[in-house]
């Protein structure tokens, strides 16, 4: 699926109910923003556009750079749980990541930059415990970091405990890339970026101020994936429900 706010739709077999998306939150903020623009100008601003503006503003509030959000998307009317299987997985190799992003028109360098979104947030133990619940542990982990992770996740398949995605997980910065260089990338899909010639240069290139600009450009590119315009889709009145005509 593309940038049509299908992930916001509520229902039993929607993308929102997929296991991959169980950690999504902030729906109340999107609801409040959509209600506000609907009150000001009914039927004009889609939930898909609200989601893009909210993503930009969240980055700015956390310390990143803003960007001009191209608007005019319309909302999808279908959300299918199985389509969430197309999302990148934490255990993916670089080749798999390049393929997943490439199918959406994004280059390997853009994939590396967008992975930097992991500078904010947490991940549950179950998404990386395969790196520490083995003997020996994943050799690409810095020993002290492996010890820390084993302390946080003492046995396999813990879903109730989450660990910060980087060492400054409440701030949008380039620390994610610094951590990868130091062997402190949390997910396999993070740390493996350093060990593939197609992506290692991007890890070093974004290890500083350039990341802020590169991320903003990549977000604009990603926000234009498979959008609905013209007469396709609709402008939802409520952010999580298809209009009843």
UniProtKB/TrEMBL annotation:
<feature type="binding site">
    <location>
        <position position="119"/>
    </location>
    <ligand>
        <name>Ca(2+) 2</name>
    </ligand>
</feature>
<dbReference type="InterPro" id="IPR033905">
    <property type="entry name" value="Secretory_peroxidase"/>
</dbReference>
<dbReference type="InterPro" id="IPR000823">
    <property type="entry name" value="Peroxidase_pln"/>
</dbReference>
<feature type="binding site" description="axial binding residue">
    <location>
        <position position="118"/>
    </location>
    <ligand>
        <name>heme b</name>
    </ligand>
</feature>
<keyword id="KW-0106">Calcium</keyword>
<keyword id="KW-0560">Oxidoreductase</keyword>
<feature type="domain" description="Plant heme peroxidase family profile">
    <location>
        <begin position="1"/>
        <end position="243"/>
    </location>
</feature>
<feature type="binding site">
    <location>
        <position position="2"/>
    </location>
    <ligand>
        <name>Ca(2+) 1</name>
    </ligand>
</feature>
<feature type="binding site">
    <location>
        <position position="88"/>
    </location>
    <ligand>
        <name>substrate</name>
    </ligand>
</feature>
<dbReference type="InterPro" id="IPR010255">
    <property type="entry name" value="Haem_peroxidase_sf"/>
</dbReference>
<dbReference type="GO" id="GO:0006979">
    <property type="term" value="P:response to oxidative stress"/>
</dbReference>
<keyword id="KW-0575">Peroxidase</keyword>
<dbReference type="InterPro" id="IPR002016">
    <property type="entry name" value="Haem_peroxidase"/>
</dbReference>
<feature type="binding site">
    <location>
        <position position="6"/>
    </location>
    <ligand>
        <name>Ca(2+) 1</name>
    </ligand>
</feature>
<keyword id="KW-0349">Heme</keyword>
<protein>
    <recommendedName>
        <fullName>peroxidase</fullName>
        <ecNumber>1.11.1.7</ecNumber>
    </recommendedName>
</protein>
<dbReference type="GO" id="GO:0046872">
    <property type="term" value="F:metal ion binding"/>
</dbReference>
<dbReference type="GO" id="GO:0140825">
    <property type="term" value="F:lactoperoxidase activity"/>
</dbReference>
<keyword id="KW-0408">Iron</keyword>
<feature type="binding site">
    <location>
        <position position="173"/>
    </location>
    <ligand>
        <name>Ca(2+) 2</name>
    </ligand>
</feature>
<feature type="binding site">
    <location>
        <position position="15"/>
    </location>
    <ligand>
        <name>Ca(2+) 1</name>
    </ligand>
</feature>
<feature type="binding site">
    <location>
        <position position="166"/>
    </location>
    <ligand>
        <name>Ca(2+) 2</name>
    </ligand>
</feature>
<feature type="disulfide bond">
    <location>
        <begin position="125"/>
        <end position="153"/>
    </location>
</feature>
<keyword id="KW-0479">Metal-binding</keyword>
<dbReference type="Pfam" id="PF00141">
    <property type="entry name" value="peroxidase"/>
</dbReference>
<comment type="similarity">
    <text>Belongs to the peroxidase family.</text>
</comment>
<feature type="binding site">
    <location>
        <position position="4"/>
    </location>
    <ligand>
        <name>Ca(2+) 1</name>
    </ligand>
</feature>
<dbReference type="GO" id="GO:0042744">
    <property type="term" value="P:hydrogen peroxide catabolic process"/>
</dbReference>
<keyword id="KW-1015">Disulfide bond</keyword>
<keyword id="KW-0732">Signal</keyword>
<dbReference type="GO" id="GO:0020037">
    <property type="term" value="F:heme binding"/>
</dbReference>
């Amino acid at each position: 699926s593309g940038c049509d706010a299908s992930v916001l739709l509520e229902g039993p077999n929607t993308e929102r109910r997929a296991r991959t998306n169980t950690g999504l939150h902030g729906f109340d903020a999107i609801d409040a923003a959509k209600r506000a623009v609907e009150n000001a100008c009914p039927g004009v601003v889609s939930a898909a556009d609200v989601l893009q503006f909210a993503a930009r503003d969240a980055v700015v509030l956390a310390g990143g750079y803003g960007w001009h959000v191209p608007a005019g998307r319309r909302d999808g009317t279908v959300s299918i749980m199985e389509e969430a299987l197309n999302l990148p997985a934490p255990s993916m190799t670089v080749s798999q990541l390049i393929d997943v992003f490439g199918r959406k028109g994004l280059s390997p360098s853009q994939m590396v930059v967008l992975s930097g979104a992991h500078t904010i947030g947490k991940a549950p133990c179950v998404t990386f415990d395969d790196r520490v619940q083995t003997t020996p542990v994943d050799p690409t982990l810095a020993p002290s970091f492996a010890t820390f992770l084993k302390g946080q996740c003492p046995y396999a398949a813990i879903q109730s405990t989450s660990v910060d995605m980087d060492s400054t997980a409440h701030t949008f910065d380039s620390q994610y890339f610094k951590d990868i260089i130091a062997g402190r990338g949390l997910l396999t899909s993070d740390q493996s970026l350093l060990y593939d010639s197609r992506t290692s240069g991007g890890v070093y290139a974004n290890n500083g101020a350039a990341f802020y600009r590169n991320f903003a450009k990549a977000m604009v590119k990603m926000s234009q994936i498979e959008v609905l315009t013209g007469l396709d889709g609709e402008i939802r009145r409520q952010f999580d429900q298809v209009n009843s005509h």
